[in-house]
Amino acid sequence: MSRSPVREGLLSLAEAGLIEFVPQRGFRAVRPSGQDVAEIFALRLALEPGAAATAARHATAALGEELREQLAAMRHAAKAGDDPGFAAADERLHTAILAAGGNTRLVSLIAGLRDTTRLIGASTAGRSRSLAQILAEHEPVVTAIEARDAEQAAAEMRAHLLTTGRLLIAQAHADGDAQAEQAWERLVSG
């Protein structure tokens, strides 16, 4: 492989704030901060509850089947202790909800935010809550979408994202990031 694709990849990671260029040394990984997590969840909270409401307004039987299929995959993975399988089904569920509104830019934007969260190693699975607990947060979102209850779908998605974000901020604080909770308060609770 030539240097160009590798360099382009490194520059993309630097653009995303995941690595930084060190003159005459190369690149190094950037340790994510609570500020990073708070910024990501502020964006997700601004967008995903509305997307869940839109999915509820446009819900079809096919969407309901897709969401139930992903919940079943999450349930199976949770029982098997399969964290990667659970995460993949969780991502497919969120993507199906986002895609239901037909806004491909929204799907792409949220996918990028979720990728960044995953790349920085931010996860509550197994550390702050079980896979079964995470699954339980998704079930009311799906139920509200199937019932075509836009207001409830938005509220349930917001509750899920707030829980996840707060747990990630608490983890960042416990890991020594004294500014994590202040960033959350300023950007999300503010």
UniProtKB/TrEMBL annotation:
InterPro entries: GntR_C, TF_FadR/GntR_C, WH-like_DNA-bd_sf. One of its GO terms (molecular function) is DNA binding. Residues 39-163 form the GntR C-terminal domain. It comes from the Bacteria. It holds the Pfam family FCD. Keywords: DNA-binding, Transcription, Transcription regulation. The keyword Signal does not apply. This is GntR family transcriptional regulator. It comes from Flexivirga caeni.
